[in-house]
Amino acid sequence: MNTKGHVHTFPDNVDTDVIIHARYLNTANHKELASHCMEDIDPTFVSKVQPSDIIVAGWNFGCGSSREHAPIAIKESGVSCVIAKTFARIFYRNAINIGLAILECEEAADNIKAGDEVEIDFDTGIITDITTGQTFQAEPFPEFIKDIISKGGLLKSLG
Known about the structure:
Blueprint: E1 2-9, H1 16-19, H2 30-34, H3 45-48, E2 54-57, H4 69-76, E3 81-84, H5 89-98, E4 101-104, H6 106-111, E5 117-121, E6 126-129, E7 135-137, H7 143-150, H8 154-158
Parallel strand pairs: 1-2, 2-3, 3-4
Antiparallel strand pairs: 1-5, 5-6, 6-7
């Protein structure tokens, strides 16, 4: 399981209200959620993000509420993976449940820059910044999490 895309960077403590503001939670339409993804921190994000792009962020990404709308908005916007120094635990579990790949890797988050092209091998946990040639080691997913993500989420993996 691999992905490759261009990077969008975000700082520490990006909370779920910044990822998708509560004013948009009155819809269950995933594409509508995605159309507002990150707009309170980067109003141009949805116009820049391309399928398979990657978010790289600092500490405590996804803090705040337990709503799963946040990882849904990110995934539906086209992002294939979020790399962060750390994730809020509920965000981490919600991301896996809906099939959004996420990796914790402090060194990658410190060194990868916005616009870099990055490739990720989920089997080995190796993150390669193609732009700079640097490689970073994240903890690879166990098989059951790879299965959930590859099938598009927990409910889809059970069916």
